[in-house]
Amino acid sequence: MKSNSPRHTFNLMHCILLLIGLTAAYSVFADEPEYEDTTVRFQSTYIWQNHPSFQEKYHGQNSLSANQEKSYTATITGFWGFRPWQGGELYLNPEITQGVPFSGLNGTGAFTNGELTRTAGTEPKLYRQKLFLRQTMNLGGGEEKVEAGLNQMAGSVDKNRWVMTVGNFSILDVFDGNAYAKDPRVQFMNAGFMAPLAYDYAADARGFGFGFTSEWYQDDWVYRIGRMTGPKDPNMLPTDFRIFKYYGDQAEVEHAHTLFGQPGKVRLLGWRNRARLASFQDALDYHIANPSSDAQAIFAVRSSDKIKYGVGVNVEQAISSDVGFFLRAMQADGHTETLAFTETDASLGTGFSIKGESWQRPKDTLGLGYIRNTLSDERRRYLEAGGISFFLGDGHLNYRPEQVFEAYYSANVWRDLYVTADYQRMLNPGYNSDRGPVNFGALRFHVEF
What we know:
mainly beta
């Protein structure tokens, strides 16, 4: 979500984060239970980022600033849950957020911090992040242990089972999982590793919606379907609750396997959105016919319901007990504007996650990743003509694919307190070879208990 203030401040929110981090880090924790009827857990994450000045040939309304900038996000989240009946789990996640993005979140396809869409402004804000029910029906096939975690109570389930989730949550909680690249609070920071950027999943501006999902686990296979609400207007916060008229549908098939003695998974995901969207061809025609009008022509032609869809593949593969490989690739149709995520029509994210066992730091993690994002011909022609979309618009476009290299090292400094150093290098920010490259440095502090 965009912010009107790029100013970085140090205030009460940061003090709260520091106190919670220190308290959690030095507390003595009891052994994890074998079974839980209730759960109360918390996480706190602070991410600070900086990019120095970089070269640009021109600057537009939605360009990433070429001057040196700072950005930060701060979150505190509660994870409260209980079992109302057999197989049922009810969870509530209140969250306090605060943060300021680079350039009002404009000028890139890949957000350098996946937390940025959840925060907006220098004042802490409390909101209900999630409230949902998960119902499990066991179907045999042997018992699997469930470890205690965030929105997960310790216990056991059958290997073969049916799981229904309904309420207010993120579709990414259920779909497009990956053991090595998923959570910007503990793994890679760039949003392109949180999910494929071409996955324009239905959600409000923070990334959450209302809906339901159904999962069927059968031996080494998992089949998932789901429907979620989207925003009333693209990339905005108010939710459109007319879930039978405007919605995001998805279906995913997952298969677990063993390759050279190491576990892995392959997922195939398809999605389809129905929403009131602008097509880029209509926006380009309007822009050409009305050259003196506002260049953000997508607002003028957002007058009818459109279908947007895409397909993707997601691979995770252990190479050894300490090294894991991942790859995500997705292609969207690219005819219409973005509904709720980033401005990308085809995306690739891949890399490696390496645990520190070999250097006697088993809880540390080294991550190395690469992202490549491209635009559809329709979106590209609109931006080349000087059009402005929600996050992009330099006034001109010398098109090249946007590429990001990211490396991070997460160090376990004490118990459940982690400090991460992160570096990202972005080529062709906003798909424009007349700008950049840009270097981003970051520090992250994370604790959960």
